[in-house]
Amino acid sequence: MLSLSKAIFEDNSYIANAKQSNQGKIHKNVVKDTPIISPTNFLPINSVHHRGKGAFKYPFTLSAQKGKNLNIYTKNNGTSTVYLSVKVNGQDFGETTIPAGGQKTRNFEQLVGTGLSGNYEVYIYNNDGSLYDLNISARQY
Questions:
Q1: For 63-127, what is the HEC assignment?
Q2: Please, what is the average pLDDT of the chain?
Q3: Is 55 exposed, middle or buried (0-12, 13-18, 19+ CB in 10 A)?
Q4: What global pTM score does this model have?
Q5: For the segment 109-140, what is each residue's pLDDT rounded down to a tens digit?
Q6: Which residues, at least 6 apart from 75, have a Cβ–Cβ distance to it below 8 Å?
Q7: For the chain, percent helix, then strand, then coil, each to nearest 5?
Q8: Phi-psi region of 64 (alpha: psi -120 to 50; beta: other; left: phi over 0)
Q9: Rounded to an integer, what distance in angstroms lies between the CA atom of residue 97 and that of residue 95?
Q10: Rounded distance, CA 140 to CA 38, Å?
């Protein structure tokens, strides 16, 4: 059985790694945002940046031994509201609205059994034909 709930992705799940670089006598810090991901995570969608025309559609398969949880994160950097739809084995699990500048995470959890498995499809679209600017990632753990 799958349980579906909405949550907002928190920016504090990212850490800043500072590197020191020497350029003559000048010291600069280069900061890179790195998601905190443990080695046991499976990334069916690994930090995709989708830009331009055309909806985002991405199928992937999960296997139970890789974990009981799935998070699908979407950040909408565009100028129009987008709609995130998720299907599991062809069954529609509803739609989430993400306004321009907004971000959301869809969470799935296997409550009974050994882990999430099956064929998943993420579909993100808008209703007005605006250009897309999306950051999408998914992880199973």
A1: CHHHCCEEEEEEEECCCCCEEEEEEECCEEEEEEEECCCCEEEEEEEECCCCCCCEEEEEEEECC
A2: 80
A3: middle
A4: 0.72
A5: 999 989 999 999 999 999 999 999 999 999 99
A6: 9, 102, 103, 134, 135, 136
A7: 5, 65, 30
A8: alpha
A9: 7
A10: 11
* Residue whose structure tokens are 């995709």: 48
pLDDT digits (tens, 9 = 90+) for 16-48: 333 333 344 433 434 444 445 555 689 999 999
Token pair for residue 29? Answer: 């810090």
Structure tokens at 65: 């031994």
Nearest one of 99, 103, 100 to 79, comparing CA atoms: 100
Q: Residue 83 in contact with residue 106, Cβ under 8 Å?
A: no
Cα gap 108→116, rounded to integer Å: 8
| CA distance linking residue 95 with residue 132, whole number of Å | 18
